[in-house]
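Protein in question quoted for reference:
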Amino acid sequence: MREKKKLRLKKFHIHPITSIVLMIILTVLLSGLFSALEIQATYSTINPTTNQLESVLVTVENLCNYDGLKFIISNAARNFISFTPLSTLLIALLGVSVAQATGLLDTFIKRKLVKLDNRVITFALIFLATISSIINDVGYVILIPLGAILFLANNRHPFAGIIAAFAGVAFGYGATLFVGSTEVNLIPITSQAASLIDTAITEGVSHISLTSNLFIIIATSIILSIVGTIIIEKMIVPKLGHYKERSEVSETSIDIPIIDIEEEEQKKLETDLREKKGLRNALIASLIILFIFIYSLIPGLPFSGILLDMEQTAYVNQLFGTNSYFQDGFTYLVSIFFIVTGIAYGVGAKTIKNDKDLFNKTGEALKDVGSLVILIFFASQLVSIFRQTNLGTIITAWGANIISNLSFTGIPLVILILVVIAITNFFATTPVLKWNILAPVVVPSLMQSNISPQFAQFILRAGDSMTKGLTPLLAFFVIYVGYLNIYNRKKENPITIKQSLSWLLPYGAIISITWILIVLGWYLIGLPIGPGVFPTA
C-alpha cells in the first residue's frame, strides 16, 4: 500500500508593512461602506463658556472617493513628518547610540547590573516604563531600545526586554509616582463634567486637585510592576527560549591559539583601568548635566526656570503646561545626557580616538534603524487615515451612549464602564479624546452612585491601560514591532503583527484583571485615593 503523504500548509510570515498596507486599504473601503450606510453617532460635550451640554453629531468621513484619495496622497508627507514616534525615536536613538558606540552602556551593564538578579532587572525596567507616562510617551522611545540592549548584554533574549518595556508603558499608562501630564490634561475635563452635578465646582467653592489620584497611582505603579515582572519571567521568557546560537566548531581541525598568560593579564588590567576611568568621567559628566537640568527646573533663581512654562502659576502646570520646555523637550534632554556621558566615557576609556571615530561608530550602531523608519512611514499613514474617517470617535460615542442608558449602580456600573472604555480604546487610543466624549456621561453617572469624580478619573486610567498595548492603531505600537524585527535573527521570517500581539495577550489579560481588582478593591475598602479624597463622595 502506498503511504499517503500528509499535506502541510506552508506557514506564511506576512511582513508588518504588508499588514499595515492591508489595514489601510480596509479602512478606506470601510469608510466608503459606512458612509453609504450613513453610520453616525451623537454625543454630548460641555460648552466651557455656558457650562451646558451640547449635542455633537459625527459622521463617517468617506475616503473611498476623489476627495478621500486626494487627502491620502496630499497629506502623506505631512503625516509622516508630524508623526510623533518618528521624531522622538530618532532623537532618543541619537543619544542611546552614542552611549552604545562608545561602550558606556556595555561597561555599565557588565560592571553594575550583571550581578543583579534577573528579576530585579526586569522589575526595574517595567517600573521605569510604568512611571514614564508622567511625561507623555517618552518611555516607548527610550526604554524599548534600552530594554533590548540590557537583556542582550545579560545573555537574555532581547525580545523579552522589548516586550517588558513596551508592555510596561502601554498597560501601565497613567500609573506614576507623582502628578504629571495626565492630570494636567484630564482634570479640566473631569471638573467640567462634575460641575453638571456639583454646582460648587462651577462656582469655585470646591475643585479637583492635581494630587487627587496620587495615593492610588503610586500603589498601582508598584503593583503593576510586580505583576508584570512575574508575567515576563514566568510566561514570556520561557516561551522565547534562547537567543544566541552556539558557535560552530570546525569538524576538520581546531586551531589552538598560543596565549601568553602574562600578556593577557596585562591587557585585562589596562582594559580595567580604562573602563574605570571612563566610568568616572561619565559619572562626573552625569552629575554636571543633572545639576544643570535640576537648576533649570527651579523658578526664582538667577538664570533658572528656563525649562518651565512661566505663564502658569502652579508649579505642576509650569512643568507640564502647553509651553513647557521640560515636557516638550524631555526626550531631547535625555538624549543630550546620553551623548555627553557617552563621550565622557569614550574619552576616558579611549574607545574613541576623534570625532570621525565617534560618528562612524554611532552610525554603525544606527545601521538597522532604516527598516524601522520605513515601517513608521506606513504606520503614520494608517493612524492618520483612520483618524480622518472619524470611526474612533463614533465608536467612543456609541460607548458613551451605552453607559448613559445603563440603569446599574455601584460595582456593576464600574465594571461595565471599565469594559466599555477598554473596548473603545482599540479604536481611540488618546485618553484626552476619549475623556472629552465619555466624561460628561461617566462622571455624572458615577457621582449619582455616590462615587467621586476623582475616582471616576482613575477608572478612565484603568480602562485606558487595559487594552492600550493590543491595538496597531496605537501610534507607538510600530516601535515595538519594529524593534522585534531589528533583533529578529531570521530575516526571511519577519515577526508579524499577529506574532507580536500573541506575546502581549497574556500580559494584557492578566494586567487587565489586576486593574479591575485594584479599582474594585479600593472602592470596597474605601482607602483614600489622594490627600483627603476617597472613592465615594
Notes: The mean pLDDT is 87. The CA atoms of residues 290 and 337 lie 8 Å apart. The first strand starts at residue 40 and ends at 46.
